[in-house]
Amino acid sequence: MQKSEPGLSRITNAAMTIFSKIIQGSIPSYKILEDERFYAFLDINPLVKGHVLVIPKTETDKFFDLEDDYLSGMLVFSKPIARAMEKVFDCNRVGLSVVGLEVPHAHLHLIPINSADDLNFNRRKLKLSTEEFEKIRDRIIAAMEK
Ligand code: AMP
Predict the structure, then answer these.
(1) Whose CA is nearest to atom 13 of ligand 1?
(2) Which side of the chain, N or C, has fewer Cβ within a 10 Å radius?
């Protein structure tokens, strides 16, 4: 897993969400892409192979409480990732989902889908090995660079 640069110095460690700890680097993640405002990484309990989470580097619980420029910017940030996912995975398209019932830090799920059931969060999650996660991460990153 890859550690990111520190990015949330104003928040004390104890008060940080698990996703802020991922951005800061104290919890590892399979990072896909990062800029000044957003961070994308593989979901550790994927619904399907290639399930990506996109998060803002600000701690806001509910998605629609994000500032307008963060809301729109999050989709623009996600675009090259979704395009790369469509190249890498055998999917009809990349589906989007906002749930947020587990982690109180706004996030967008990007999921390669072939049917609506691929977005069913009640279904059993995949268990992947470190090697599988690393391979998926590397394939998405390589496809973004083409
Ligand atoms: P929800 O808040 O309901 O949208 O779900 C949160 C998502 O975050 C779930 O799909 C989890 O598998 C995922 N998740 C939780 N902790 C981690 C982590 N440390 N690394 C990657 N994904 C995570």
Answers:
(1) 43
(2) C
Is 107 annotated in the active site? yes
**pTM score, whole prediction:** 0.93
Beta strand residue intervals within 28-124, DSSP E: 31-34, 38-42, 52-56, 93-97, 108-113
In a domain, 3, yes or no: no
Rounded to whole angstroms, the Cα distance separating 141 from 146 reads 9
Q: How many residues does the chain have?
A: 146
CATH code, domain with 88: 3.30.428.10
Mean pLDDT by 10 residues, the chain (146 residues): 50 81 97 98 98 97 97 98 98 98 97 97 97 98 94
Residue 5 in domain: no
3-state DSSP assignment of residue 120 = coil
